[in-house]
Specification:
The structure holds 2 protein chains of 2 kinds. Chain A is of the alpha+beta class. An 8-stranded mixed beta sheet of chain A has the order 1-2-3-4-5-8-6-7, with helices on one face. By secondary structure, chain B is mainly α. Classes of the chains: A alpha+beta, B mainly alpha. At the A-B interface, strand 1, strand 3, strand 4, helix 1 and strand 5 of A face helix 1, helix 2, helix 3 and helix 4 of B.
């Protein structure tokens, strides 16, 4: 279980002028500290101009980040508290933006689902959290709506994060915005 | 907001004003191509419907008690 505490976060090393990134050192079990980078960037979809993506991980040689790296962090609570605190700072400066987390990776979706669930009372003071499921329409003739290729025509459906919903029933996509 | 949290926020903001220019973006094309929400919204009509539903969900979430 991850416990979020904005009073216990890693010190930032470097922060982008536009708050698009931050670096910090994380303690790793049985090895030296590692430099992690958080990046908040536009999704780049002209149809979703206010949706931003957040990624974090160790730096690669090309300056990009490896957001799929498996690291044995000494203090996961502090890592995620640091990441969420940074996104809070970002959203305070960009209150019209909403951060999206793709839940297509089960491990990642489970982690975020549990984090929002178990820190509900704490995070609700700062963020509005949304879960998105994919639905396909059942037509009156009993068939499901299909696309031009004959495949089920799935559409995303957002709802307020359901805190009664167990982590075994993950959303496909998570979004959070500054609570104003 | 607690004073210590505000201090942590101020620390980030202070570094931002005294720090690196520029924008550290991962490839926007790769983000969009790999994002399942982006892939599932195919045109401006679907986007309008989704954004309206998102706006409604945010409003409900702000007032929801349980």
């Amino acid at each position: 279980m991850i416990k979020i505490n904005f009073e216990d976060t890693y010190d930032p090393i470097e922060v982008g002028e536009d708050l698009s990134f931050m670096t910090f050192h994380s303690e790793v079990k049985d090895t030296a500290d590692i430099l992690l980078k958080i990046i908040i960037s536009p999704l780049g979809d002209p149809l979703l101009p206010n949706v931003y993506n957040m990624a974090f991980g160790p730096l690669l040689e090309n300056g990009d980040i490896d957001d799929r790296a498996k690291i044995n962090h000494h203090n996961k609570d502090k890592i995620f508290s640091t990441i969420l605190l940074f996104s809070l700072v970002y959203l305070q400066s960009n209150p019209q933006m909403i951060i999206g987390i793709d839940g297509s990776n089960d491990v990642r979706a489970y982690l975020y689902h549990r984090m929002f669930l178990t820190n509900r009372e704490y995070l609700i003071e700062y963020f509005v959290t949304i879960g998105v499921d994919w639905y396909v329409k059942l037509l009156r003739n009993g068939a499901v709506e299909v696309d031009g290729n004959g495949l089920p025509y799935f559409k995303p459906k957002p709802e307020p994060f359901d805190y009664q919903r167990p982590a075994t029933n993950l959303y496909r996509y998570y979004m959070y915005q500054l609570k104003q | 907001m607690k004073e210590k949290i505000q201090q942590r926020i101020n620390q980030v903001r202070h570094l931002a004003t005294a720090s690196v220019k520029g924008h550290a973006v991962k490839s926007v094309e790769s983000l969009r191509a790999n994002d399942s929400l982006s892939k599932s919204i195919r045109n401006s009509t679907e986007a309008s419907i989704f954004l309206a539903e998102l706006d409604a969900a945010v409003k409900v979430a702000k007032t929801k008690k349980d």
